[in-house]
Amino acid sequence: MIPLITQTPRLQILAASRALLTAELHKPQYFPTLLGAALPTDWPPGDYDRAAMEYFLEKLTAGGRDAAGWYNWYALRKAEGDIPRTLVGTGGFMGPPDAAGCVEMGYSIAADWRGQGLGTELVAGLVQQAAATGQVRRLVAHTEPENLTSQRVLLANGFTSVGTDVNSRLRFERAVEPAADPKLQALTGR
């Protein structure tokens, strides 16, 4: 089973569920309560719009338990001092890996929280999550040529620019090494 929570130093990255997406789409007044986090003033961010939410809900509904973790993830800034636990971004995958182990990913940080390295940390957490599945061999991400911040985030996480796609967006890729299995490590001493 795929882990549905990933931790980074400042973020808890939580896989979307049908209940969370349903609340976000149809009962937004309950969404922060279910999520257990405050919402930024400008939610939702970037390309994470109603159509994306509906797509993820449809895929989770159709795929059942096997779809969990292969679509949207919420980036929650851990509570610190006067700052409550807050939803700061979203990211995730466009579905399970193809036969070659390739997965496309995307991400966006709410404007209120940009410029603090949280996008870099979110992508690092998603890379960690992909490795933890043991099924992903390559990650692909796209960004607009003018989005220099997104390009820096990808480069900081080991992605390499490999040209443009058919829509003239920049394409980035990186290899993913499967995470070491702790049980295997214990048995082998490595």
From TrEMBL:
It holds the Pfam family Acetyltransf_3. It comes from the Bacteria. Coiled coil: none annotated. Residues 41-177 form the N-acetyltransferase domain. Gene3D superfamilies: 3.40.630.30. This is N-acetyltransferase domain-containing protein. It comes from Hymenobacter ginsengisoli.
